[in-house]
Known about the structure:
The protein is globular. The protein has a four-stranded parallel beta sheet, sandwiched between helices. The protein has a two-stranded antiparallel sheet with strand order 1-2. The protein has seven helices and ten strands. It has helices at 37-44, 67-72, 82-86, 93-97, 115-128, 145-157, 175-190, and strands at residues 3-6, 12-17, 26-29, 56-57, 60-61, 75-78, 108-109, 112-113, 163-167, 194-198. The protein is of the alpha/beta class. Strand 7 and strand 8 form a beta hairpin. The model has no long low-confidence stretch (mean pLDDT 92). 34% of the residues lie in helices and 18% in strands.
Amino acid sequence: EDLAAQSDKGLPALSGVNLTVRAGEILGIAGVAGNGQRELAETITGLRNVTGGRVQIGGADHTNRSPRAIVQAGVAHVPEDRNGTGVIPSLDLADNAILKEYRSAPLARGLFLNHKAVAEFTDRLIDEYNVHAPGRHAKIRMLSGGNQQKMVVAREFSRPIQLLIAAQPTRGIDVGSIEFIHNQIVSKRDEGVAVLLVS
Length: 199
């Protein structure tokens, strides 16, 4: 509601933005790079401060909440910059797969990781999302762009979500991966997830 935010250079990037994304709906925002799309996604997901207006998720005010609080509110984010914010290239598939859920059971047992559960979880995502990789211990930077993106999508879609922010989810990947990711987004919509698709 009436959302405002600044760019990385401190200039106005968003001003008076009003939109509603409903459950079971895909709302698309299209335009040229630099028109505030990235800033919009980042304000909703807690990665950028809101300078005016507010963000509501499921009827609750989440303006300027932390990214962790936004994740816990049931928001999934497929970011525009896969290598900058989508994955940690130096880590393996298993570590990247659990980035959002490593504190929660069954992946965690108190303060420690449950390595058996992490392995089973990662192998399931690799299988279900058809990620072509030599195994869960492979560094994610060694995968093709399409397989890295499928791993990001797998991680974001593997938990209960009510809102999906997908910012250019198929940029720079092969045609087969594009179709697969589009189908996964439509499936989430069909499950009743609200989807904001930026392209």
